[in-house]
Specification:
The chain is about 15% helix and about 30% strand. The longest helix is centred in the middle third of the chain and has 13 residues. The termini are far apart.
Length: about 150
């Protein structure tokens, strides 16, 4: 019998795709219904039967046509976030310091463009929880709570 009283939360992954000069790849959200016009990293939800790493590799490939080998991902941060509407989620952030391909917008219906930004001078349009996680990852802080 399934215990429906147990806590469950959506799980997302975000990938900090970093160039040799330290700049991070950001996507301008559009047509998603959440934070459109804001910037975020490549990423999305973990699908049933998928590991965090498999989801990160898949999302980067689907969204920006960049190939990241699973062993080239490095854990950067995990955030347990609660939105203003009390929806909670867990977001696992990975760094991709080595990758191949030329970043390309593969989802123009969901992304208005690709941008590069240095982690210490992020544009104000970066989704606040993503900006916070990037800052904490850069400082070596592996975990945060946001909105609790």
């Amino acid at each position: 019998m399934v215990d429906n009283s147990r806590y469950s939360s959506p799980i997302g992954v975000c990938v900090l795709v970093q160039r040799d000069d330290g700049a991070l790849l950001l996507l301008e959200r559009a047509g998603t219904g959440y934070a459109d016009g804001s910037l975020s990293t490549p990423g999305g939800h973990v699908e049933q039967g998928e590991s965090f790493v498999e989801a990160a590799v898949r999302e980067v490939r689907e969204e920006v046509d960049v190939l990241v080998e699973p062993h080239m991902l490095r854990f950067a941060h995990v955030m347990h976030q609660r939105d203003a509407d009390a929806q909670a989620r867990v977001i696992v952030f990975f760094e991709a310091l080595h990758w191949s391909g030329e970043p390309t917008n593969r989802e123009p219906e969901l992304c208005a463009g690709l941008h590069w930004a240095k982690p210490d001078t992020l544009p104000s349009m970066v989704i606040p929880c993503v900006a916070d996680a990037i800052t904490m990852a850069q400082a070596g802080q592996p975990f945060s709570l946001r909105g609790w």
